[in-house]
Design a protein that fits this description.
The protein has 98 residues and is α+β, with helices and mostly antiparallel strands. It contains four helices and four strands. The protein has helices at residues 2-8, 24-40, 55-60, 87-96; strands at residues 14-19, 45-50, 68-73, 76-82. Strand 1, helix 2 (24-40) and strand 2 form a beta-alpha-beta unit. The radius of gyration is 12 Å and the shape is globular. The N and C termini lie far apart (25 Å).
């Protein structure tokens, strides 16, 4: 958990993808997030959290469905969305947080 706090307290935006291995939409989101990272490069950190292996963290952030994405900036949650979004939408949201 303390490692998670370190990660989300960066100056740059940190997109957290809460997912499950058995979730179809989560699998669809994975290549989209890779494209987002390819475009934004070092301007964003993207981490994936398996809700089945990190139930305490999922519970702390009230993740009820997967996939759920949370965007953090300097440790503060600035955006949240459940479901799959397209690459351009995600990039716009991340850029707006800067």
């Amino acid at each position: 958990m303390s490692k998670f706090s370190e990660i989300i307290n960066q100056d740059k935006p940190v997109l957290v993808d809460f997912f499950a291995t058995w979730c179809g939409p989560c699998k669809a989101l994975t290549p989209i997030l890779k494209q987002v990272k390819d475009v934004l490069k070092e301007n964003v950190s993207i981490i994936k959290i398996d809700v089945d292996k990190n139930q305490e963290l999922a519970s702390k952030y009230q993740v009820k469905g997967v996939p759920t994405m949370l965007l953090f900036k300097n440790g503060k949650q600035v955006w949240r969305q459940s479901g799959v979004l397209q690459k351009d939408e995600i990039i716009k949201i991340i850029e707006a947080s800067n």
